């Protein structure tokens, strides 16, 4: 077995693998997180909540959770998607380990959320630095602000709530943002 330099395994393209396409998005997210240093920074900022003899780093567990949600998961147990592909995500914490970490962080929610926000801010600044003049906020100033147009698709959902009204297209649903 080769030594890894990061928290996630190095990949090799061979075309013989199974379940390659479903994990392509996860690879992109993980490599981006590594490039901007989110994996390292997150691990450092949430280190105080790591148990003394823990096998898995708290930051990696949180990053794995974020990736599992991004690739279609909707609960903590969906981290199993990553566990099923160790060649992409490396060792992934068990469901009880993930639940214990979330409970530990929830016990000190304001401090934990501040630590996570700090790690995200550092990684975002690194991403914009790496992007240089191609960063979205490169020429932004008070006189020329960065304008973000957030658009999304309405998710169709039936509603039997009292006074529920249809959208302008006569359907029922919600906006995920």
Mean pLDDT value: 83
Largest β-sheet summary: 2 strands, antiparallel
Shape: globular
| Low-pLDDT segments, ≥5 res | none
Task: Determine Rg (CA atoms, Å).
Answer: 20 Å
Number of strands: 2
**Helicity level:** 40-55%
Strand order of the main beta sheet, please?
1-2
> How much of the residues is beta strand, in percent?
under 5%
Listing every helix as H and every strand as E from the N terminus to the C terminus, the arrangement reads HHHHHHHEE
Which class best fits the helix and strand makeup? Answer: mainly alpha
Number of continuous helical runs: 7
N- to C-terminal distance: 43 Å
Short description:
This protein is mainly alpha-helical and 177 residues long. It is built from seven helices and two strands; from the N terminus they run αααααααββ.
Characterization of this structure:
With 177 residues, the protein is mainly α. 44% of the residues lie in helices and 2% in strands. The chain contains seven helices and two strands; from the N terminus they run αααααααββ. It has a two-stranded antiparallel sheet. α1 packs across α3 (58-70) and α2 (38-45) packs across α3. It is globular, with a radius of gyration of 20 Å. 20% of the residues are buried. The model has no long low-confidence stretch (mean pLDDT 83).
């Amino acid at each position: 077995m080769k030594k890894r330099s990061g928290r996630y395994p190095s990949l090799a393209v061979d075309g013989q693998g199974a379940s390659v396409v479903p994990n392509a998005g996860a690879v992109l997210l993980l490599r981006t997180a590594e490039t901007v240093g989110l994996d390292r920074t997150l691990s450092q900022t949430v280190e105080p909540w790591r148990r003394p003899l823990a096998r898995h780093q708290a930051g990696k567990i949180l990053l794995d959770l974020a990736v599992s949600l991004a690739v279609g998961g909707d609960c903590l147990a969906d981290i199993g998607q990553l566990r099923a592909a160790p060649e992409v995500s490396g060792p992934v914490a068990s469901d009880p380990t993930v639940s214990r970490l979330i409970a530990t962080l929830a016990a000190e929610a304001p401090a934990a959320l501040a630590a996570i926000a700090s790690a995200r801010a550092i990684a975002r600044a690194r991403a914009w630095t790496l992007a240089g003049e191609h960063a979205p906020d490169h020429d932004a100033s008070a006189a020329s602000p960065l304008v973000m147009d957030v658009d999304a698709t309405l998710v169709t959902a039936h509603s039997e709530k009292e006074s529920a009204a249809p959208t302008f297209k006569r359907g029922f649903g919600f906006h995920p943002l």
